[in-house]
Amino acid sequence: MSTATQVPAALEMPRDTYLNAGYGVKSWFLTKDHKRIAILYLVSITMFFLFGGLMAVLIRLELLTPAPDLFQSDTYNKLFTMHGITMVFFFLVPSIPATLGNFVLPMMIGARDLAFPKVNLASWYIFMIGACFTFSAYISGGVDTGWTFYTPLSTSYLNTHVVAAALGIMIAGFASIFTGLNFIVTTHRMRAPGMTWFRLPLFVWSMYAVSLVQVLATPVLAITLILVALERGFHIGIFNPQLGGDPVLFQHMFWFYSHPAVYIMILPGFGVISEVIPCFSRKRIFGYSAVAFSSVAIGVFGFLVWAHHMFAAGISTYSALVFSLLSFIIAIPSAIKVFNWTATMYKGSIHFNTPMLYALAFIGLFTIGGLTGLFLACLGIDMHVTATYFVVAHFHYVMVGGMLVAYLAGLHFWWPKMTGRMYPEPPAQLSALITFIGFNITFFPQFVLGYMGMPRRYHTYPPEFQVLNVLSTAGASVLAVGLLLPMFYLLWSLKYGEIAGNNPYRATGLEWQTESPPPMHNFHETPIVTQEAYDYESMNEEEVVIG
Amino acid sequence: MLPQYFPLFPESASTLSPRVDALFFFIFGVTIFFTVLVALLICVFAVKYRKDKHPVPVQIHGSIPLEIFWTLVPLGIAMVIFAWGAVLFFQEKHPPKSSMDIYGVGKQWMWKFQHPGGQREINNLHVPVGRPVRMTLISQDVIHDFFVPAFRAQMDVIPGRYTYTWFEATKPGVYHLFCNQYCGTKHSGMVGEVTAMSPDDYEAWLRGAGAFGSLATHGQNVFASMGCPTCHTGADNARGPNLYNIYGRMERMSDNRLVHVDESYIRESILNPSAKIVYGFQNIMPTFQGQLNEDEMIELIEYIKSLTYNGQLLQLQTNTQQEPPVNLDKIQKGVDVMQPGTNTTPMPRTSAVPVTQEAQEPSTAEPAPRQVVVPGKQKAPAKPSTTARPKGEQHP
Amino acid sequence: MDSHAATVEAGLHHRDPELHNQFDTLEQQKDTAHLGMWVFLITEIMFFGGLFGAYLVYRNLYYPAFVAGSNSISIFWGTLNTAVLICSSLTMAMAVHSAAIGARKLLVGFLSLTLLLGLIFLAVKGKEYYDKWTEHHVPGANFHFDDPERPGEAPVPADVASQTSIYFSLYFAMTGMHALHMIIGVGILLALIWKASRGSFPPHHYTMVENFGLYWHFVDIIWIFLFPLLYLISRTPAMH
Amino acid sequence: MSAAGEHIVSPKLYVLIWIILLCFTGLTTAAAFGDFGIFNPIIALAIAFTKAILVVLFFMHVKYSPRMTALVIGCGLFFLSILMVLTTADYISRGWMF
Ligand code: HEA
Ligand code: HEA
Ligand code: CUA
Ligand SMILES: [Cu+2]
């Protein structure tokens, strides 16, 4: 079991794959196969990403000039709200877990499926129902609360469809809970013989940490949004200052979820990078247990820092101190990871396939994004930059430069496993490059804007900010090219891509030992694990065929 | 390109600005250092160990000393940043004692500012250079945020509760004022200007701004018209506590807590009197919820703050008082408040019910004798009161 | 951890019809279902946790209002309902027991008893809600709170009276979310009774009953906390 | 690790627990009528916790289940306490001033 199959001269597509296990609509929409559910998720979140991206493009276009020329201010407010909500709740939170995680996690641990396949399918339906609610709010006029739904604005002062949007997010939240639940139980109970905790691929460790966060944090968001809906519907006073409520309590409850949620949005990325870097350095990961434990540490400590979003919101000085201190501590596990990835490259044999290019971009961009998090976590500075474009730049660096790039890395990495065909390398490398450049042009100027004091969620702005805004918009169009290109060549590769074979990169990991695309139940026989993860030593002994 | 068209750094115009900037540059240095370090390592490794050059990788498991090293070093740096930031934060949070007070009320989508002398401005704020200004902020509807980038001063403005920020302008000039918390449709239109002026110019501006009586004098009117003096007579046997000198001291509550009397406390005492009961008094004060708007509340507070024996707090006042009109509607309201329904229990003539030793010394060590003073009447020397007190409101 | 490793082969060859494809042994399947249920229950803890957190904050901010509010609800019905739920927990535990020993009739009987008790609980809750409605204690447009429950006491000051709306908001949110869980439970119980009467739960395969039992007990536990928090601990004005 | 619920608890034990729970319910209601100051909530919550633990241990079979189950519960309570403690810490310390 330990060796990959020899690569024959002319590869053929395997005969029985999950893709041809059935063709009808029913075979997809009623499937319980984690791989097909992953594809369902993949298609849906790609749609949502395009929608969110379209909103982003419109935002950037409006911000070309200081004057309000394209949209009214309420339209603009709807744009960034819909952009934020869609990107966060309907794209980034499910992105890696529900697609790549769903697809490869059971294979990585040698299982035939997730523990609860029906729950898995249900979670996709729940997700889509949630999306229907939220999108119905978009269609029937939009929402303009900002993705943060701050009270009392959202509960008493807006007359857009806040309730539908909030309930949609709550419902989609349950999808996320169920995915997490499934992963936790699967990781505990479904590992193949010999797959001990310390032989798990780091992707599984980080998915485990993510799942903990999903399971423990998301319910608080659910109840918070329910309270918002109740407050709108029945004018009760839980967050309404006029009835004695405290709007800041809403922020506590919201960020109790939403800070951990930012780790839901980055940990899976860490997992992908921890797979990609060793594979294309042909080398075991540096400091396996440090990377594994830092994932769990981020998951746990992530619950302790939420009020760093509220330093200027009128919380007590002392609790601000505590939350600031904890925020600095949470930065350390991320630092450990960055250094270990870098060290992994040391004395490796580095291949520049597209996933690796994305991974390298990830390290750089995440480092910048993370380090600018330190400015924000620093009380003295945050009192100046909070809610400015500095924050906007920070979170795009971690979410777009970090997670979105990691998602693309993972998508390319496992594309041959998912489809059985290789993506075309040259355009893919090109688009990685364009994305990297475009990204920096888009968001770097925003740091400068932010420190100068340009507030976020501003439809019009003072003229001295224009130059940098133009730069940012220009960058966004480059970025758009970089992000749209993959849509074309990936679709193209479905038909014309080279046939990949089981393990085109000669990567370690059980998922590479089965066919591409995998058969219905992943493995023809249950694998038995005898080595540690990332044993590239034995892998490298085989013939070198990699491109 | 000319820097004035293409600025890359905000104006630095307050005493706090250089301190914030210094810390900013420190973290900036840390960021550059680590980013360059990581980027450099990646590039060097990518070139040196690329597959053509280095086809046989060396398998390395890891290194505990290295792990410890790169855990502790960032931790140390992070702690330095934290500590520095925390110190700065305390400075940002604690206005100097000598600050002057300006009140700001945010509402969708405008700012209203009130100077103690009674000058009011909308979306404009005039402040003197070289004098710390403490902003007491409140919102009438949703959460807003008072943000002056050039001063590095920012604070959320919350409905129902005061928040504070302060700055001391160092350079005369006109600076942006932004609302920096999303507050609905015209959030981006909720902007204004802060004009910092030399003290003389500021004095001149104050005089020219056409104030209509100081906040405290307006407050005194409100005080009278709401019927406050019926209980707060200042007399020893009054039903409500003497309000002289309460501002800034520690007040003992009936559950023996000590509470700092600041704007927030006074506000709470008026709107939500049951929350904290002053030691030795009973919970008979009616709530004035819904009867005072934020402006009147600020006036009341300024008035109560002005009730000091040495009158220091009133120094700022300019001499533009006219006879403020007595608001008859308010008097009517004030009477309503006193009508049965809210308070049907027989009120004790004396408020100090439990006559214990402690009850005689309710507040802390401060020697603020609860004298027989009707606030704003007999013994308010510093308060140039020309106000006509509605006679009917006197406690019999 | 990999206790099932040895039985993999056996499991693969003669598979029990109840054994789902992704599992190797029935034991693994059962273990997994349990773990899944417990993980689900901790999400429920966090869900209610948000409400408990809000409760904690507001009780400290507005203690007098909480006193006034909780004096206005009926300890009698609260206690009764607590007892009813505890009884239903017993019958539920007995139902699981009957399933384990394979007593189908008993199983159906105990499940039905549980259902009955659950319905009684909901009926009492409904009565309490109705009372609150007639007293105008439901937050919203018609809300007003004037006199305390116990005659002869000083009336509640106006500011406190208006803050009781927070207490009642929490009361309805918390008991409402709990009641929602009860209603879901009742729905599942109906399905279980139907299935049990058709003999779907043989002694080696009653995980569903067991897991539902866990859910039902969990809902009971939530009430065990709601009862003192909402009915009992804010009756005396002395403490803060 | 054996499957939960293998252990069959005798109905007698269930009935015993049930009786204890009912007694506690009576007790906690009775205690609510007394004025013990700060101890009123403490008594009530102590009783509630005892009741909850009894239900968890016996009705929910945690006493006979693998340690994992207790771990999962502990984990849930731990994160719940984070929510509670850090949120209330803000409210408690808002009035502080040094
Ligand atoms: C993927 C999402 C993600 C991630 C991973 C992070 C990571 C971090 N974030 Fe970020 N953040 C967001 C998404 C994210 N954030 C979003 C969406 C918002 C805005 C929400 C809104 O208001 O709309 C936000 C806002 C935000 C704020 C509030 C700003 C404000 O509104 O005023 C703060 C404040 O502390 C903060 C801090 C941090 C910190 C300290 C980290 C740390 O985890 C970063 C750790 C990483 C590193 C530090 C880099 C690697 C380390 C090294 C190379 C070694 C050197 C290290 C040291 C010297 C310590 N973030
Ligand atoms: C996952 C998270 C995510 C992602 C990927 C992005 C991606 C982008 N974001 Fe987003 N952003 C947020 C999360 C994200 N953002 C959040 C949470 C907020 C805060 C919202 C709030 O304040 O409430 C925000 C706010 C925000 C602002 C601030 C608005 C304001 O405060 O006024 C800006 C401004 O530049 C911006 C820009 C961009 C850009 C240029 C991209 C680019 O990376 C996008 C690139 C993608 C494309 C260019 C897609 C290409 C598609 C098309 C061109 C359309 C084709 C269409 C079809 C074929 C149907 N974002
Ligand atoms: Cu006011 Cu934004
Ligand atoms: Cu955060």
Q: How would you sum up this structure, described in words?
A:
The complex is a heterotetramer of chains A (about 550), B (about 400), C (about 240) and D (about 100). Chain A has about 550 residues and is mainly alpha-helical. Chain A contains 17 helices and no strands. Chain A is globular. With about 400 residues, chain B is α+β, with helices and mostly antiparallel strands. Chain B contains eight helices and twelve strands. Chain B has a five-stranded mixed sheet with strand order 3-2-1-5-8, with helices on one face. Chain C has about 240 residues and is an all-alpha fold. Chain C has one domain (about 20-145, about 160-230): Cytochrome c oxidase, subunit III, four-helix bundle (Four Helix Bundle (Hemerythrin (Met), subunit A)). Chain C has helices at about 10-15, 25-60, 65-70, 75-100, 105-135, 160-195, 205-230. In chain C, helix 3 (about 65-70) crosses helix 6 and helix 5 packs antiparallel against helix 6. The termini of chain D are far apart. Chain D has two domains: about 10-65; about 65-100. Helix content of chain D is about 70%, strand content about 0%. Chains A and B meet through helix 3, helix 5, helix 10, helix 11 and helix 12 of A and helix 1, helix 2, strand 7 and strand 9 of B. The complex binds heme-A (2 copies), dinuclear copper ion and copper (II) ion.
List the helices and strands and how they pair.
The complex is a heterotetramer of chains A (547), B (396), C (240) and D (98).
Chain B: H1 16-48, H2 64-93, E1 100-107, E2 110-114, E3 120-122, E4 124-128, E5 133-139, E6 144-148, E7 153-157, E8 163-167, E9 173-179, E10 192-197, H3 199-208, H4 215-225, E11 250-252, E12 258-260, H5 263-271, H6 294-306, H7 328-338, H8 357-360
Parallel strand pairs in B: 1-5, 4-10
Antiparallel strand pairs in B: 1-2, 2-3, 5-8, 6-7, 6-9, 9-10, 11-12
Helix pairs in contact in B: 1-2, 4-6
Chain C: H1 8-13, H2 26-61, H3 63-71, H4 75-101, H5 104-134, H6 158-197, H7 207-232
Chain D: H1 11-33, H2 39-59, H3 67-93
Helix pairs in contact in D: 1-2
The structure holds heme-A (HEA) (2 copies), dinuclear copper ion and copper (II) ion.
